[in-house]
Amino acid sequence: MKALCWNGINELNVERVPDPSILNPGDAIVRVTMSSVCGSDLHLLDGYVPTMKEGDIIGHEFMGEVVEIGPGVKKLKKGDRVVVGSVLGCGGCEFCQTDQWSLCDNSNTNPEILEKAYGHAGAGIFGYSHAFGGYAGSHAEYIRVPYADHGSFKVPEGVKDEAAVFTSDAFPTGFMAADMCGIERGDTVVVWGAGGVGQMAMQSAYLLGAERVIAIDRFDDRLEKARVHAKAEVLNYEKVDVLEALKEMTGGRGPDRCIDAVGMEAHTTGVEQVYDRAKQAVRMQTGRPAVLRQAIMACRKGGTVSIVGVYGGLIDKFPMGAAMNKALTFKMGQMYAQKYIPQLLDRVAAGEVDPSYMLTHKWSLDQGPEGYKMFKKKTDNCMRVVFTP
Ligand code: NAD
Ligand code: ZN
Questions:
Q1: What predicted TM-score, i.e. pTM, was given to this entire model?
Q2: What is the pLDDT of residues 51-70, one digit of tens each?
Q3: Of all protein residues, whose CA lies closest to atom 39 belonging to ligand 1?
């Protein structure tokens, strides 16, 4: 089959690779109908996630049709139209049982690599390096889906692919970001980053009771989408002093809840990348957590900082004094796909949110390398490029 493979920093190629097959009783094979780019893939392109290997298939936000199931799969059958969460969970461990799926004890086949790199071990993620289990990604014609009964969800009739695909990753991540804030009626929520994850965090903040949402980015087309579709007030951080503006907009008090939907973006953090071709491994350097610092400094006393933007290694000069003296609450994590996807599919089916406006380009898999170049530079008003293998 055809697949989009990672071959080094900023190097992607469409290659012929073997078709996947069932390896464990709980596996399903899904024919991918849509697979989206995600900001997390940029960390792979930038070389910030350790342990990518040349030839690894990337991609993790996807949907498709079940074409084969293992003997242990109970809830799915051939022909089902499903969305698959990007983070894998076994369903049986202590963490899956308590709905903290991205902390799963069993779905990462190489937990020792993650442990060595980050000092902890978490769940496997499709197409997201060997530290996260070395699972083949979704930018391919077919994909093996382990723990298929837990991670795949039938798409309700009437929900179109263009909306459903984002319930795989961007929407549950944005929703979790807002959920972690502990929003109370009347709250002002600020979201740094108006990408797919940020847009969904803004919409989710309203669903969870926010009165006011403020979006921060530097791309006017993304801010415009935030304004029109997510009903956010917007700030362009290249045109205003963010801390001053937020102070003024909240009467000097500061926003109640602050969401980091950016993470270690190269433009912002200047994380230095070192890729060792011989070892096929990436060494992380430290970066400046510009967004996180702003969020901590801006947040009102006793407020919440919620982080879904991805961080890999160490970050410099984290303003611990401000955080401590303002009694801030921090919540963060890779998202709990299996916890949120069912209710988000229901919300989309009910018309509460239509994430399809984020899909700006629907391209073939052959255009993968070009699609990522555009997505990385955010040219052509690109928000989400979706490949249709
Ligand atoms: P994206 O690249 O489409 O959007 C990121 C946006 O952040 C861009 O529009 C960029 O201009 C903006 N930005 C950069 N620096 C900024 C700054 N200083 N202030 C305000 N905005 C700034 O990416 P995305 O798909 O929306 O993903 C966003 C983040 O969420 C990434 O770090 C990604 O890895 C992470 N993510 C996390 C999870 C999870 O499970 N926690 C899941 C998916 C994505
Ligand atoms: Zn588990």
A1: 0.96
A2: 889 999 999 999 999 999 99
A3: 334
